[in-house]
Amino acid sequence: MNEDSILSFVQFAEVPMSSSSSRILIVDDLEDNLRVLTETLTEQGLSPLQAKDGSRALQIAKRAHPDLILLDIQMPGMDGFETIAKLQADEDTKDIPVIFISALGDIEDKVRGFQAGAVDYVSKPFRREEVIARVTTHLRLRQALAQVELERKKAHNLLLNVIPPPVAEELSKKGFFAPQAYPDVSVLFSDFVEFTQLSSTLSPGKLIDELNTLFTAFDEIMDRHGCERIKTVGDAYLAVSGMHDSQVDHPQRITRAALEMRDFVAGFSGTSETPWKIRIGVHTGELIGGIVGVKKYLFDIFGDTVNIASRMETLSEPMQVTVSDVHAERIQGTFDLEVRSPLPVKGKGTMGSALVRGLKDQGT
What we know:
This protein has helices at residues 3-13, 31-43, 54-64, 80-89, 107-116, 128-162, 165-174, 195-201, 204-224, 250-271, 304-315, 325-331; strands at residues 23-27, 47-51, 68-72, 98-103, 120-124, 180-192, 228-233, 236-241, 278-292, 298-302, 320-324, 335-345, 349-359. By secondary structure, it is an alpha/beta fold. The strands form two sheets. Strands 6, 7, 8, 9, 10, 11, 12 and 13 form an eight-stranded mixed sheet that branches. It is elongated.
Protein backbone atom coordinates (compact mmCIF):
# COMPACT_ATOMS: atom_id res chain seq x y z
CA MET A 1 0.00 0.00 0.00
CA ASN A 2 1.55 3.34 -1.01
CA GLU A 3 1.35 6.63 0.91
CA ASP A 4 -1.55 8.03 -1.13
CA SER A 5 -3.57 4.88 -0.57
CA ILE A 6 -2.90 4.96 3.14
CA LEU A 7 -3.91 8.62 3.41
CA SER A 8 -7.16 8.01 1.52
CA PHE A 9 -7.94 5.11 3.84
CA VAL A 10 -7.20 7.24 6.90
CA GLN A 11 -9.48 10.02 5.64
CA PHE A 12 -12.22 7.40 5.19
CA ALA A 13 -11.50 6.01 8.65
CA GLU A 14 -11.89 9.38 10.34
CA VAL A 15 -15.60 9.44 9.50
CA PRO A 16 -17.41 8.19 12.66
CA MET A 17 -18.64 4.61 12.40
CA SER A 18 -22.15 3.65 13.41
CA SER A 19 -20.76 1.72 16.40
CA SER A 20 -17.83 3.02 18.47
CA SER A 21 -17.69 -0.17 20.58
CA SER A 22 -16.57 -2.60 17.88
CA ARG A 23 -14.58 -5.41 19.44
CA ILE A 24 -11.24 -6.33 17.88
CA LEU A 25 -9.45 -9.50 18.95
CA ILE A 26 -5.65 -9.11 18.75
CA VAL A 27 -3.76 -12.41 18.63
CA ASP A 28 0.02 -12.16 19.03
CA ASP A 29 2.55 -13.91 21.25
CA LEU A 30 4.68 -10.77 21.71
CA GLU A 31 3.72 -8.43 24.54
CA ASP A 32 5.02 -5.31 22.74
CA ASN A 33 2.87 -6.01 19.69
CA LEU A 34 -0.22 -6.50 21.85
CA ARG A 35 0.50 -3.21 23.66
CA VAL A 36 1.04 -1.14 20.50
CA LEU A 37 -2.05 -2.49 18.71
CA THR A 38 -4.22 -2.18 21.83
CA GLU A 39 -3.22 1.45 22.36
CA THR A 40 -3.77 2.28 18.67
CA LEU A 41 -7.25 0.76 18.57
CA THR A 42 -8.30 2.14 21.96
CA GLU A 43 -7.47 5.66 20.77
CA GLN A 44 -9.98 5.11 17.93
CA GLY A 45 -12.76 4.30 20.39
CA LEU A 46 -12.61 0.57 19.64
CA SER A 47 -12.64 -2.24 22.22
CA PRO A 48 -9.57 -4.49 21.87
CA LEU A 49 -9.43 -8.01 23.25
CA GLN A 50 -6.13 -9.90 23.62
CA ALA A 51 -4.94 -13.47 23.13
CA LYS A 52 -1.34 -14.68 23.17
CA ASP A 53 -1.86 -17.93 21.27
CA GLY A 54 -4.22 -19.58 18.82
CA SER A 55 -5.96 -21.81 21.36
CA ARG A 56 -6.88 -18.85 23.56
CA ALA A 57 -7.97 -16.90 20.48
CA LEU A 58 -10.43 -19.65 19.53
CA GLN A 59 -11.95 -19.60 23.01
CA ILE A 60 -12.37 -15.80 23.05
CA ALA A 61 -13.71 -15.67 19.50
CA LYS A 62 -16.37 -18.28 20.25
CA ARG A 63 -17.45 -16.57 23.46
CA ALA A 64 -17.17 -12.86 22.57
CA HIS A 65 -17.70 -13.09 18.79
CA PRO A 66 -15.56 -10.03 17.94
CA ASP A 67 -16.21 -7.90 14.88
CA LEU A 68 -12.68 -8.41 13.56
CA ILE A 69 -9.57 -10.45 14.39
CA LEU A 70 -5.96 -9.29 14.00
CA LEU A 71 -4.06 -12.59 13.78
CA ASP A 72 -0.29 -13.04 13.84
CA ILE A 73 0.99 -15.66 11.41
CA GLN A 74 4.16 -16.72 13.24
CA MET A 75 3.28 -18.00 16.73
CA PRO A 76 4.57 -20.95 18.76
CA GLY A 77 2.28 -23.94 18.92
CA MET A 78 -0.80 -23.19 16.81
CA ASP A 79 0.24 -20.69 14.12
CA GLY A 80 -2.03 -18.26 12.31
CA PHE A 81 -2.85 -20.59 9.42
CA GLU A 82 -4.04 -23.37 11.72
CA THR A 83 -5.96 -20.85 13.83
CA ILE A 84 -7.86 -19.36 10.91
CA ALA A 85 -8.67 -22.86 9.64
CA LYS A 86 -10.26 -23.72 13.00
CA LEU A 87 -12.10 -20.40 13.09
CA GLN A 88 -13.63 -21.05 9.70
CA ALA A 89 -14.58 -24.62 10.60
CA ASP A 90 -16.73 -23.42 13.51
CA GLU A 91 -20.27 -22.17 12.73
CA ASP A 92 -20.00 -19.59 15.53
CA THR A 93 -16.81 -17.98 14.23
CA LYS A 94 -16.60 -18.71 10.50
CA ASP A 95 -17.97 -15.31 9.46
CA ILE A 96 -15.59 -13.19 11.57
CA PRO A 97 -13.18 -11.39 9.21
CA VAL A 98 -9.48 -11.98 9.88
CA ILE A 99 -6.60 -9.60 9.13
CA PHE A 100 -3.22 -11.30 9.26
CA ILE A 101 -0.25 -9.66 10.95
CA SER A 102 2.73 -10.17 8.68
CA ALA A 103 6.28 -8.95 8.30
CA LEU A 104 6.79 -6.68 5.27
CA GLY A 105 8.98 -9.14 3.43
CA ASP A 106 6.87 -12.26 3.93
CA ILE A 107 5.14 -12.18 0.54
CA GLU A 108 4.58 -15.94 0.49
CA ASP A 109 2.90 -15.77 3.91
CA LYS A 110 0.62 -12.99 2.69
CA VAL A 111 -0.43 -14.93 -0.38
CA ARG A 112 -1.00 -18.04 1.68
CA GLY A 113 -2.97 -15.92 4.16
CA PHE A 114 -5.38 -14.69 1.50
CA GLN A 115 -5.76 -18.24 0.23
CA ALA A 116 -6.59 -19.34 3.79
CA GLY A 117 -9.43 -16.81 3.98
CA ALA A 118 -7.90 -13.65 5.45
CA VAL A 119 -9.42 -10.40 4.22
CA ASP A 120 -6.29 -8.25 4.57
CA TYR A 121 -2.95 -7.93 6.36
CA VAL A 122 -1.16 -5.46 8.64
CA SER A 123 2.58 -5.14 8.18
CA LYS A 124 5.27 -5.29 10.80
CA PRO A 125 6.73 -3.04 12.06
CA PHE A 126 3.36 -1.39 12.70
CA ARG A 127 2.47 1.98 11.23
CA ARG A 128 -0.38 3.58 13.12
CA GLU A 129 -2.01 4.99 9.97
CA GLU A 130 -1.99 1.64 8.21
CA VAL A 131 -3.46 -0.21 11.20
CA ILE A 132 -6.27 2.33 11.56
CA ALA A 133 -6.96 2.40 7.82
CA ARG A 134 -7.16 -1.35 7.35
CA VAL A 135 -9.10 -2.07 10.54
CA THR A 136 -11.60 0.73 10.01
CA THR A 137 -12.15 -0.16 6.37
CA HIS A 138 -13.05 -3.77 7.21
CA LEU A 139 -15.23 -2.75 10.13
CA ARG A 140 -17.16 -0.49 7.78
CA LEU A 141 -17.42 -3.26 5.23
CA ARG A 142 -18.70 -5.66 7.89
CA GLN A 143 -21.28 -3.11 9.03
CA ALA A 144 -22.37 -2.53 5.44
CA LEU A 145 -22.75 -6.27 4.82
CA ALA A 146 -24.73 -6.60 8.05
CA GLN A 147 -27.02 -3.80 6.91
CA VAL A 148 -27.49 -5.45 3.53
CA GLU A 149 -28.40 -8.72 5.24
CA LEU A 150 -30.84 -6.90 7.52
CA GLU A 151 -32.53 -5.27 4.54
CA ARG A 152 -32.63 -8.62 2.75
CA LYS A 153 -34.38 -10.19 5.73
CA LYS A 154 -36.84 -7.29 5.88
CA ALA A 155 -37.62 -7.71 2.19
CA HIS A 156 -38.04 -11.46 2.64
CA ASN A 157 -40.38 -10.95 5.59
CA LEU A 158 -42.44 -8.49 3.56
CA LEU A 159 -42.62 -11.07 0.78
CA LEU A 160 -43.89 -13.63 3.28
CA ASN A 161 -46.71 -11.25 4.19
CA VAL A 162 -48.16 -11.45 0.68
CA ILE A 163 -46.94 -14.82 -0.59
CA PRO A 164 -47.05 -18.26 1.10
CA PRO A 165 -43.63 -19.28 2.53
CA PRO A 166 -42.98 -22.22 0.12
CA VAL A 167 -43.75 -19.96 -2.84
CA ALA A 168 -41.56 -17.16 -1.44
CA GLU A 169 -38.66 -19.59 -0.95
CA GLU A 170 -38.82 -20.82 -4.54
CA LEU A 171 -39.20 -17.27 -5.84
CA SER A 172 -36.13 -16.17 -3.86
CA LYS A 173 -34.00 -19.09 -5.06
CA LYS A 174 -35.09 -19.36 -8.69
CA GLY A 175 -36.52 -15.92 -9.45
CA PHE A 176 -39.82 -17.44 -10.57
CA PHE A 177 -42.60 -19.75 -9.41
CA ALA A 178 -44.17 -22.14 -11.89
CA PRO A 179 -47.99 -22.42 -11.63
CA GLN A 180 -49.01 -25.55 -9.79
CA ALA A 181 -52.12 -27.71 -9.56
CA TYR A 182 -53.28 -28.58 -6.04
CA PRO A 183 -55.62 -31.60 -6.10
CA ASP A 184 -57.18 -31.32 -2.64
CA VAL A 185 -57.49 -27.93 -0.92
CA SER A 186 -60.07 -26.34 1.36
CA VAL A 187 -60.96 -22.75 0.48
CA LEU A 188 -62.63 -20.17 2.73
CA PHE A 189 -64.23 -17.00 1.43
CA SER A 190 -65.82 -14.35 3.63
CA ASP A 191 -67.16 -10.83 3.50
CA PHE A 192 -69.05 -8.46 5.76
CA VAL A 193 -72.81 -7.95 5.56
CA GLU A 194 -73.88 -4.56 4.14
CA PHE A 195 -70.28 -3.37 4.07
CA THR A 196 -71.03 -0.54 1.63
CA GLN A 197 -73.55 0.97 4.05
CA LEU A 198 -71.22 0.47 7.00
CA SER A 199 -68.34 2.16 5.21
CA SER A 200 -70.46 5.22 4.47
CA THR A 201 -71.10 5.75 8.19
CA LEU A 202 -67.45 5.57 9.27
CA SER A 203 -64.56 7.96 8.72
CA PRO A 204 -61.79 6.55 6.51
CA GLY A 205 -59.47 6.26 9.48
CA LYS A 206 -62.03 4.46 11.63
CA LEU A 207 -62.98 2.10 8.79
CA ILE A 208 -59.39 1.07 8.08
CA ASP A 209 -58.60 0.77 11.79
CA GLU A 210 -61.50 -1.61 12.42
CA LEU A 211 -60.85 -3.64 9.26
CA ASN A 212 -57.23 -3.94 10.29
CA THR A 213 -58.26 -5.26 13.70
CA LEU A 214 -60.58 -7.82 12.13
CA PHE A 215 -58.19 -9.00 9.43
CA THR A 216 -55.26 -9.18 11.85
CA ALA A 217 -57.36 -11.41 14.10
CA PHE A 218 -58.32 -13.55 11.10
CA ASP A 219 -54.63 -13.96 10.19
CA GLU A 220 -53.82 -15.09 13.73
CA ILE A 221 -56.70 -17.56 13.63
CA MET A 222 -55.44 -18.98 10.34
CA ASP A 223 -51.93 -19.37 11.73
CA ARG A 224 -53.23 -21.20 14.78
CA HIS A 225 -55.03 -23.75 12.65
CA GLY A 226 -52.31 -24.24 10.05
CA CYS A 227 -54.20 -22.35 7.35
CA GLU A 228 -52.96 -19.43 5.27
CA ARG A 229 -54.46 -16.24 3.97
CA ILE A 230 -54.20 -15.75 0.24
CA LYS A 231 -55.44 -12.17 -0.02
CA THR A 232 -58.01 -9.58 0.99
CA VAL A 233 -60.02 -7.59 -1.54
CA GLY A 234 -61.96 -4.78 0.06
CA ASP A 235 -63.91 -6.47 2.84
CA ALA A 236 -63.48 -9.96 1.37
CA TYR A 237 -61.04 -12.43 2.94
CA LEU A 238 -59.71 -15.47 1.06
CA ALA A 239 -57.83 -18.28 2.82
CA VAL A 240 -56.88 -21.90 2.20
CA SER A 241 -55.87 -25.02 4.05
CA GLY A 242 -53.99 -28.04 2.74
CA MET A 243 -52.22 -26.33 -0.14
CA HIS A 244 -48.62 -26.43 1.06
CA ASP A 245 -48.73 -29.27 3.55
CA SER A 246 -49.74 -32.91 3.51
CA GLN A 247 -52.15 -32.89 6.46
CA VAL A 248 -55.30 -34.73 5.51
CA ASP A 249 -57.42 -32.93 8.11
CA HIS A 250 -57.34 -29.60 6.27
CA PRO A 251 -61.17 -29.51 5.90
CA GLN A 252 -61.51 -29.74 9.68
CA ARG A 253 -58.81 -27.13 10.31
CA ILE A 254 -60.30 -24.50 8.04
CA THR A 255 -63.78 -25.15 9.44
CA ARG A 256 -62.53 -24.56 12.98
CA ALA A 257 -60.89 -21.38 11.74
CA ALA A 258 -64.19 -20.28 10.15
CA LEU A 259 -66.07 -20.78 13.42
CA GLU A 260 -63.43 -18.79 15.32
CA MET A 261 -63.70 -15.99 12.76
CA ARG A 262 -67.47 -15.89 13.26
CA ASP A 263 -67.10 -15.84 17.05
CA PHE A 264 -64.44 -13.14 16.95
CA VAL A 265 -66.65 -10.88 14.83
CA ALA A 266 -69.51 -11.41 17.28
CA GLY A 267 -67.31 -10.39 20.19
CA PHE A 268 -65.77 -7.46 18.35
CA SER A 269 -69.16 -6.16 17.24
CA GLY A 270 -70.29 -6.18 20.87
CA THR A 271 -67.53 -3.73 21.81
CA SER A 272 -67.62 -1.60 18.64
CA GLU A 273 -70.07 1.09 17.68
CA THR A 274 -70.31 -0.64 14.29
CA PRO A 275 -72.61 -3.70 13.99
CA TRP A 276 -70.18 -5.95 12.15
CA LYS A 277 -71.62 -9.19 10.74
CA ILE A 278 -69.86 -11.74 8.58
CA ARG A 279 -70.80 -14.41 6.06
CA ILE A 280 -68.44 -17.32 5.46
CA GLY A 281 -68.42 -19.95 2.71
CA VAL A 282 -66.18 -23.04 2.46
CA HIS A 283 -65.59 -25.65 -0.23
CA THR A 284 -62.99 -28.38 -0.82
CA GLY A 285 -61.62 -29.40 -4.19
CA GLU A 286 -58.80 -28.84 -6.68
CA LEU A 287 -57.36 -25.53 -7.77
CA ILE A 288 -54.41 -23.86 -9.49
CA GLY A 289 -52.04 -21.46 -7.76
CA GLY A 290 -49.48 -19.12 -9.27
CA ILE A 291 -47.75 -15.76 -9.20
CA VAL A 292 -49.57 -12.90 -10.87
CA GLY A 293 -47.68 -9.73 -11.81
CA VAL A 294 -44.07 -8.78 -12.40
CA LYS A 295 -43.37 -5.58 -10.48
CA LYS A 296 -45.86 -6.32 -7.69
CA TYR A 297 -45.99 -10.00 -6.89
CA LEU A 298 -49.29 -11.56 -5.90
CA PHE A 299 -49.90 -15.24 -5.32
CA ASP A 300 -53.43 -16.08 -6.38
CA ILE A 301 -55.62 -19.17 -6.74
CA PHE A 302 -58.01 -20.07 -9.53
CA GLY A 303 -60.63 -22.68 -10.38
CA ASP A 304 -64.12 -23.92 -9.57
CA THR A 305 -63.16 -24.58 -5.95
CA VAL A 306 -62.60 -20.87 -5.39
CA ASN A 307 -65.79 -19.96 -7.25
CA ILE A 308 -67.90 -22.44 -5.26
CA ALA A 309 -66.47 -21.19 -1.93
CA SER A 310 -67.52 -17.71 -3.02
CA ARG A 311 -70.99 -19.00 -3.95
CA MET A 312 -71.32 -20.66 -0.53
CA GLU A 313 -70.52 -17.32 1.09
CA THR A 314 -73.22 -15.65 -1.00
CA LEU A 315 -75.74 -18.29 0.08
CA SER A 316 -74.77 -18.03 3.73
CA GLU A 317 -76.84 -16.24 6.36
CA PRO A 318 -75.26 -13.42 8.39
CA MET A 319 -73.01 -14.76 11.16
CA GLN A 320 -73.16 -18.27 9.69
CA VAL A 321 -70.65 -20.65 8.11
CA THR A 322 -72.03 -22.35 5.00
CA VAL A 323 -70.17 -25.25 3.41
CA SER A 324 -70.75 -27.20 0.20
CA ASP A 325 -72.09 -30.73 0.35
CA VAL A 326 -68.63 -31.95 -0.73
CA HIS A 327 -66.99 -30.19 2.20
CA ALA A 328 -69.80 -31.26 4.56
CA GLU A 329 -69.09 -34.90 3.77
CA ARG A 330 -65.45 -34.44 4.76
CA ILE A 331 -66.26 -32.91 8.18
CA GLN A 332 -69.52 -34.58 9.17
CA GLY A 333 -67.94 -36.71 11.87
CA THR A 334 -66.46 -33.69 13.66
CA PHE A 335 -69.00 -30.88 13.32
CA ASP A 336 -72.70 -30.38 13.98
CA LEU A 337 -74.19 -29.71 10.55
CA GLU A 338 -77.62 -28.51 9.45
CA VAL A 339 -78.17 -29.79 5.93
CA ARG A 340 -79.96 -27.29 3.69
CA SER A 341 -82.18 -27.94 0.71
CA PRO A 342 -80.37 -27.84 -2.65
CA LEU A 343 -80.12 -24.30 -3.97
CA PRO A 344 -79.35 -22.88 -7.42
CA VAL A 345 -75.71 -21.83 -7.70
CA LYS A 346 -74.69 -19.44 -10.47
CA GLY A 347 -72.83 -21.33 -13.16
CA LYS A 348 -73.10 -24.68 -11.32
CA GLY A 349 -76.80 -25.57 -11.36
CA THR A 350 -78.30 -26.88 -8.13
CA MET A 351 -75.95 -27.70 -5.25
CA GLY A 352 -76.35 -29.00 -1.73
CA SER A 353 -74.96 -27.14 1.27
CA ALA A 354 -74.98 -27.17 5.05
CA LEU A 355 -74.67 -24.74 7.93
CA VAL A 356 -71.92 -25.48 10.45
CA ARG A 357 -73.35 -24.99 13.91
CA GLY A 358 -70.27 -25.95 15.87
CA LEU A 359 -68.18 -28.88 17.03
CA LYS A 360 -70.19 -32.03 17.75
CA ASP A 361 -68.80 -32.42 21.24
CA GLN A 362 -69.55 -28.78 22.09
CA GLY A 363 -72.84 -28.18 20.34
CA THR A 364 -73.72 -24.55 19.62
